[in-house]
Amino acid sequence: MKNVMLLIALWIFSLPNLQAQEAIFRSQDLISPEMEDNKVTFRFYAPNAQKVEITGDFLPTEKIDSPMGKVDGPGKVTLIKNDKGIWEFKTETLAPELYSYSFLVDGLPALDPNNPFLIRDVASVTNIFIIGGAQADLYKVQQVPHGTVAKRWYPSEGLRMVRRLTIYTPPGYEQSTQSYPVLFLLHGAGGDEEAWMTLGRASQILDNLIAQGKAKPMIVVMPNGNVIQDGAPGEGSKGFYKPQFMIPQTMDGTYEAHFGEIIDFVEANYRVNKEKSQRAIAGLSMGGFHTLHISRFYPNAFDYVGLFSAAIMPRKDATGRVYKDIDATLEQQRDNGYQLYWIAIGETDFLYDANQEFIKKLDAMKMPYTYVETEGGHIWRNWRIYLSQFVPQLF
Amino acid sequence: MKNVMLLIALWIFSLPNLQAQEAIFRSQDLISPEMEDNKVTFRFYAPNAQKVEITGDFLPTEKIDSPMGKVDGPGKVTLIKNDKGIWEFKTETLAPELYSYSFLVDGLPALDPNNPFLIRDVASVTNIFIIGGAQADLYKVQQVPHGTVAKRWYPSEGLRMVRRLTIYTPPGYEQSTQSYPVLFLLHGAGGDEEAWMTLGRASQILDNLIAQGKAKPMIVVMPNGNVIQDGAPGEGSKGFYKPQFMIPQTMDGTYEAHFGEIIDFVEANYRVNKEKSQRAIAGLSMGGFHTLHISRFYPNAFDYVGLFSAAIMPRKDATGRVYKDIDATLEQQRDNGYQLYWIAIGETDFLYDANQEFIKKLDAMKMPYTYVETEGGHIWRNWRIYLSQFVPQLF
Question: From its record, what is one biological process in GO terms (chains A, B) (predicted)?
Fold first, then answer.
């Protein structure tokens, strides 16, 4: 009996799943994606499918239909089936980047069962891979000193809940007695306190820039900008539910008005240099909108401000007291002075025009800023690059 | 132009994906899983499929073929297609639990595109959902005080690398000056420093048991037991690669021999009560094997020892110095004394016989232990339950 049990054990242990007794046998036992010389081969086993396609941001965008005519959509390529029922596609040489992809099997979405590395963006999950080199080496876990990443909960009296945030403390923080500068880093609509860590590779970027001597050791605080949530979907008390893109109250001023609580919490609980010269704030899309408004609502709090593809646009629900006296508070912020007001936008971003208008406004006000225009649109690829460019300018 | 941009913006903002300009349109816009009175409806859109099945641990196991004949495998049920091409299956009332599932579309594995909550077990990814009530309420994020969960790196001189671990500090830790007891909690083969947090719901279980007054506030340290890794797949310097079940050197004594480094790191960096009476160790499967050997290799270090479905079996690679003098060190551990030596195993676990033999050995040695036998096999459901039962007995 003992030998039979051991044989069963060895057989089960040869399966790729510890839950072997109730295993869900999913693995196809292929290698996908396979990387060689920055070319990537994708494989998908589907002997009876009529068509297997792959779609992802490693492919050129294609024009797709929208209510306003053709707009840029994700590229798509059909894989070739071999005699074993395995569909395959090999890319040309890809530029360094973190890419995401998924398959379409006879038109239906399917994740790559051979790649367990996934990323959630709002309610969509895709597979990811990294082509190293250039800026993408910043997105990898390298053999350098690593900061600590903590998920911590802070009491918000204003929002009447205990809320979750992500906090990065740099390598050496725990052994040191010094106080550190702080960057508050805000997510976009549909994101949460997880987004900059997963989609944005923030801790890897910070670890690597600090190791290269290109960034000062700093604390990075990544709060949740959705004031009706206590934590990210699946991580808060609302449990598992399908995340939405636009969440009520995200751009009505509530978050900005209570942002001081987050600053207070961090300064009370971490060794933080509380001087304005040691405080930065930046955000992407909706987080850029929040950054704009927080930095002028607290007009003498931040010496460094970063708007990444900021969602600067008129909003019907922007009725909160935060949005009163926009011009006067911007002037106050200007007069108080700061080191850097950094605006970055992609040339095909749908918020491009809105950002140009904002810049004109700043020009008219003689409010200093640095403007960076890049290729591409409203995409995480740009936001990782913007973070990598912004952080070395801080403190 | 501005109005057109705004219209495009509104259209894009109505999509479920912020990467709209390069969006991968995956969402099927169904509700799945839908829960009502602890019955769950699953839905999958596949108008052209011949057959859509669902497999998961909410279904009774079925006999499947193996080299040793029929063994228990995951249950499977076929969904019914409606005239809109949506396949549907509604369960009977399910008992409280965290369940995992995936679909099979014409025999091919597919995740639920309407459920972004996923869990990785070795190289397999499945969707998850929770039916609340009873023990499963411990697995939910409740509105109770939350501990902090940090991913931190410790220097291992013995393994010559800086290694990642997960550390849970209980609610109030940061505001307190007291020293806390510590539980070292070890994963199984194919797991890593993520496993107890994701599959094991350890931080939720601790938060909830502490809030209910059933467990003492404690620190929980979840290291990585794969000595050739510096971090979990995708989180360490090896980057993204397909995780394996049995990793070289996981059960050759290297981990156990260097475990003191982890204890030292935690005690040097956290407010830890260093008395034996305030130190516990437990692990599942391979982690139970590690627990057995660590607790007798350091025979006066732990007053609480937990073997959850422990992989007690002869291993060819168990040649390390740690495995010398097993009986003598067990006797030493017995003579030094301890509060609890807790052994739990499921009645259909393939390690059941091995655990019975170990118990006979302990009986013969007059080494005290507490034995708990449960239904079920070598599955996470049991390990969550074992953790929930073990933790209230500590300190």
Answer: carbohydrate metabolic process
Nearest by Cα to A165 from A275, A270, A288: A270
Report CB contact under 8 Å: A26, B72: no
From A290, A377, A71, A354, select the one nearest B3 (Cα to Cα): A354
Which helix (H) or strand (E) segment is A296 a member of?
Answer: helix A286-297
- Measured in whole angstroms, the distance separating CA A171 from the mean position of its chain's CA atoms is 21
Residue span(s) of chain B under CATH 2.60.40.10 come to 14-132
Tell me where in chain A the CATH 2.60.40.10 domain(s) lie: 16-132
For an interface test with A, the pick among B2, B5, B10, B18 (most A C-beta atoms closer than 10 Å) comes out as B18
Report residue B67's pLDDT band, with 50, 70 and 90 as the boundaries: low
Q: Which residue of chain B has the CA closest to A48? A: B106
CB contact under 8 A, B9 and A61: no
CATH superfamily of B139-393: Alpha/Beta hydrolase fold, catalytic domain (3.40.50.1820)
Residue A26 has pLDDT above 70, yes or no: no
The torsion defined by the Cα of A180, A181, A187 and A192, in degrees rounded to 10, comes to 30
CATH number of B14-132: 2.60.40.10
Comparing B92-96, B107-111, B218-222, the range with the smallest average pLDDT is B107-111
Chain pair A-B, CB pairs under 8 angstroms: 322
Amino acid at A269: N
ipTM confidence score: 0.92
Among chain A residues, CA nearest to B68: A8
What's the pTM? 0.93
Q: Which residues of B touch A48 (CB under 8 A)?
A: 106-107
Task: CATH 3.40.50.1820 in chain A: give the residue spans.
Answer: 139-393
CB B191 within 8 A of CB B119: no
pLDDT bin (cut points 50, 70, 90) of residue A315 is: low
Q: Which region among A24-28, A207-211, B73-77, B235-239 has the lowest average model confidence (pLDDT)?
A: A24-28
Alpha carbon distance B199, B203 (integer Å): 11
Q: What dotted CATH number matches A16-132?
A: 2.60.40.10
CB–CB contact A8 B245 (8 Å): no
Cα of A235 vs its chain's centroid, Å: 17
Q: What is the pLDDT of residue A78?
A: 97
Of the residues A2, A4, A19, A149, the best mutation for testing chain B's interface (the one with the most B CB atoms within 10 Å of its CB) is: A19
Q: How confident is the model at residue B19 (pLDDT cuts 50, 70, 90)?
A: very low
For residue B95, give Cα distances in angstroms to A114, A158, B378, B384.
Answer: 32, 38, 19, 15
